[in-house]
Specification:
Length: 119
Amino acid sequence: MIRQLKFVSIPTRDQDRALAFWTDKMGFKVATDQPMGHQRWIELTIPGAQTGVVLFTPEGHEDRIGTFFNGSFQCDDVDYSFTQLRDRGVDISPPEKQPWGNFTRFRDPDGNSFILSSR
């Protein structure tokens, strides 16, 4: 039966620009980068995680580019991660504290919005 979520897809207009962002600024690693139709299938791993990310926009889903990512990335320390990502040039908001944990919001070069939180 189902054991885990293998990957999530992040829609993008420019795969090269997205690849540079997710590897250079966010620290993800390339698992595969292969031609797939008029795009490439770019699968990235997140160091220390089992779930990966795919930089691919299915045909007909271009309207998802630049929207809110319906999920959340997790880190051990939001304040530390905020400082590191801000210093790398990531468009990121100051951390907020909530009863359920700390979080920050960041954007990729396509305008997709993400949450980064701690437990």
